[in-house]
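Section 3.1 - Work completed
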Amino acid sequence: VSIPGPAGPIPARLYAPAAAGAVLPTVAYFHGGGWVQGDLETHHGLCARLARHAGVLVVAIDYRLAPEHKFPAAVEDCVAAYRWLRVQGRDLGVDVSRVAVAGDSAGGNLSAVVSQVVGPPLPTCQVLIYPAVDFTMDTDSHRELVDAHVIPRDRIAWYAQQYLRTEADKADLRASPMRAASLAGQPPTMIVTAGFDPLRDEGRAYADRLREAGVDVVYREYPGQIHAFVSLTKAIPQGMACTLEIAEYLRKRLA
């Protein structure tokens, strides 16, 4: 299907559980890939598993990618898609009163940003899977894990260079949601991090800030895991365990 976007139609894909009702609680899913890579195919398995185990409709959003479409194009697409699901989604079988956002890595960043900028109605909840939330890259995990699997420091810097227009964009909360002056009033949140992931500490810090602002937060750190482990269910059994945990959270929050 396609959803109207600010620069033309945004491709999307629907994943419905087997025993689907007329309308279903829905998750708008934003894929990872450093704002440069990833599409509906790369996250097909994960979206299908979430729909099946959470019993929800998952709508995967194929937002515009850098470097052809620099910041804030991806943000604008994700905001437009979320708003459309809230207003027009019934045509696709969306229960417009229950719409969550979720994403991994860059998609976790986009989910957090959508929740901050979209205004009412806010997402029913948000699931941020090893999210990137602060472009300063100034945490212990960034320093310890310079040569990390999947996303070594130079690759993260390359993604930032492709995505952002200028150094000043790093301070924009639409790029670095951690920079928001206040996180009060954000939706209930689940954050997942991996122990051997440079993004670990900023995910934890974002969870702490949300909690301090009075937001209901579930924080889960998988100590021995690497960035992207939730997608690697065949190679990493804990990827499936984490997927089931996320599905259970979504099932409860969207009930």
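Second construct:
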Amino acid sequence: MKKIILLVLSFSALIVQARAQWAMRSASPTAAITQLNVLNKDTLFATSTDGDGVLKSVDGGVHWDTLAFTNASSFKVHFTDQHTGFVAAYAAFATAPTCYKTLDCGQTWQQMNYTISGGDYFSTIHFLNKDTGFVSSMGILGRTINGGDTFTTQELIPESHYITNIHFINQSTGFVSLVQQGNVAYRDMIFKTIDCGNTWTPVYSEIPETQQVFVYGGITQMQFVNSQLGFAITTGAPSKMLKTSDGGNTWAQMPGTMFAGFSLTDVHFISEQNGYVVYNQRIYKTLNGGQTWSVQATSPADMLMMEIEMLDEQTGFASGHGLFKTTNGGGTTAVNTLPAAQGGFKVYPNPSLGDIRIQNEKNIKIERLTLIDATGRVSRVLNTERTTFTFPDLANGTYFLAIQTATGNYIEKIQVLK
């Protein structure tokens, strides 16, 4: 009995949730803020989902100016340093999308000479310096080595596909991810270059789980902590997180990081253990390399998030329905974890054959719902709008249902006996 009590107490400690300090710097000027580029603690560029222009702030996101481009919309933006930046956009009345560059931090812009036909919109843009960069439109990968005077195309695979992300970790090593479209299923692929895009080698190829979304986003975000350690996420439902420890030569799904029901939209790790994701439009943080995650609170509460970018361990920005900032890494204060019954929650049947139901007698809004296995890993992140769950593939054993609300955190021990 003593061992069981200690086990329950240890799990209570594991799921102590955090009250993070992500404070709103500004509300969205029009629609949601996306394409966040943080140059330093003061200078930020972004776009809005209504596609009206590029947003610029020089006071850490408190105020925004909108930079308009004639007959252009649906912007993608990428800066390589404090001065040099690039914008890709849909161009009305043109045969191809258009690109612009600035060498003075957005004071003036020069149109580049992109003439490749075959797509109306750019999906990704990534430049290494003022001369060399890549853009993609559906399955077309364009490359320039002369500052946009000319672009050439590169073919990664002959099959039908669309490019979902371009990411470089230095002036020569980079990655392109894409989704190959088949008759029955999608296929996620990652290609690597070590010669600045002269040649590309496939390093990852997997068929994702059956999707609940109409259009699968694929591998949309990638981030490296150093030259060897990197992370990537898929945007879909379910979503998953990938990790590489050998400079991107091999990629594998991180154990326990299947995010079901909703989608991952961003990832940013400070170290191998300390990282963040945006899932279901909320910020989550891990301090143990992704074994467990805690939701981060915002002020105002319940604001929807899309992207996150950390400058260092303490300072970071997040965007979505507004711009938010933390100056303590999402610093936390412990919140007590209580038995589920004390919050008016009844979880049954228990023992379970793999099905569980949650009765919310006090009608409290559930902020996060997770199923934790006997090792302390998050086995499932559950849809908080549902009350009935079926787990046909859940192994027999002891689990803990963690319920987070605005007023407290609760736990219920569950035995699965099939």
